[in-house]
Amino acid sequence: xxxxxxxxxxxxxxxxxxxxxxxxxxxxxxxxxxxxxxxxxxxxxxxxxxxxxxxxxxxxxxxxxxxxxxxxxxxxxxxxxxxxxxxxxxxxxxxxxxxxxxxxxxxxxxxxxxxxxxxxxxxxxxxxxxxxxxxxxxxxxxxxxxxxxxxxxxxxxxxxxxxxxxxxxxxxxxxxxxxxxxxxxxxxxxxxxxxxxxxxxxxxxxxxxxxxxxxxxxxxxxxxxxxxxxxxxxxxxxxxxxxxxxxxxxxxxxxxxxxxxxxxxxxxxxxxxxxxxxxxxxxxxxxxxxxxxxxxxxxxxxxxxxxxxxxxxxxxxxxxxxxxxxxxxxxxxxxxxxxxxxxxxxxxxxxxxxxxxxxxxxxxxxxxxxxxxxxxxxxxxxxxxxxxxxxxxxxxxxxxxxxxxxxxxxxxxxxxxxxxxxxxxxxxxxxxxxxxxxxxxxxxxxxxxxxxx
Length: 453
Description:
By secondary structure, the chain is an all-alpha fold. Helix content is 80%, strand content 0%. The protein contains 22 helices and no strands.
C-alpha cells in the first residue's frame, strides 16, 4: 500500500497536470495537433523519467523513513510505473481527439481485466508481492505502446517539437497542478491521521478497505470518451445546451452499468473482501462498503467542462473546500469511530466536492439541473438495482453456499438481468452505441436488434 501511495505522489508531483493540459491543447482548433502531440509526449516522457528516478533514489531512504525494510525493493520495481502512468492518460486524450474512442474503450477494458487476472494469479498462486507490483507497473506502459502503435499507423507522430507550447503547458498546468495535488489528498489525509491517532494494523485495514474496483475507474471514463471529442468542439463554439445534453447521456449511460455494480458490491462486500484479500482483512469490509457509496456519484467527470471552459479557478476553490472538510471531519470522526469514521469523513467530503462542482458547471453552462441530469431515471435505476440485488442477498442467505459460489452466482444472475432490463426499457438511446454492439462477435448485432425495438 505504501509503495503505491509513494509512487502515485511522485507521479503527480512530476507531471505538472499534463493530462489536463493535453486535453485543452488537443481540443484547441487553432493548434497543429501533430506538433502538440509530439511536444506533449516528449514533455510527459521526460517528466516520467524524472519521476521514476526520484522514486528509485527515494527507495534507498524509504526503509528507514517508514520502518519497512521491504519498501525499498518494492519502490525499485514499481518506479517504472511512473514513466507510463501519465503517458498513458495523455495518449488517451490523443486517441479521443483522433476519433479512436472505440479502440480506447476496448483497450482499457482488456488491459484492466488482464491486469486483475494476473494480479490474482500473482497473489493466490505465487504469493509474490513483487510480481504483483511488476504487473501493475507495466500495465500503463503496455497500454501506451498499443496507443503509440495506432497513432504511428495513422501517421500522426511526425510533428515537430514546438518549444512555445512548453510555456502554455506551464501556464495551463500550474493552477491545475495544485488542484491535482489537493484532489489526490483524500488518499493520504485519512492515512496520515490514522497513523497518528490509531495504529499500523488499523491503517492496513483502512487501506485494504478503501480500494477502488479497478474496472470502475475505466467505466465512466471510457463511456465518456464516446462523446468527448464532440463535447470539446461544442464548448469552443459556445453551444452549451448541446454540451449539457451530451453530459446527460453520459451520466445515464454510465449509471445503468455503474449503479448495479455499486449496489452489488455494497450487498456482497464481505464476500468480496474475504475472496480478494483473505480473512486477515475481514474487518475491512465495513470501510469497503462506505467507499462503494462513492461509486454512486462516479457517473461523470466533474472537472472536464470547467477545464475546457478555462475556469480552473473554480476547480481550485472547490478542492480547497474539499480538503478543509476532509481534514476536519477525519480529525473529529476518527476519535469516535476509528477507521470507519475516517472512511465516512472521506466519502462525505467527496460528495461535497462533487455537488459543488456539479453546481458550478451548471451555472457556467447557463442550464438547469433538469437539462444536465435525469434525476428521476437515476433514482429508478438505483431503486430497481437495490430491489433485485437485495432480494438475491436474502434468498441466497438461506442456501448456505460456499462464499465463492454465492458471490459468482449472485453476480451472474443479477447484473446481466438488470442491464437487460434497463436497455430493453429504453433508459438510454441504444442507437448511439450501435458501433459497440457491432464489435461484439456473433451476438452483438442480434442484441442490438432486441434492445432497439
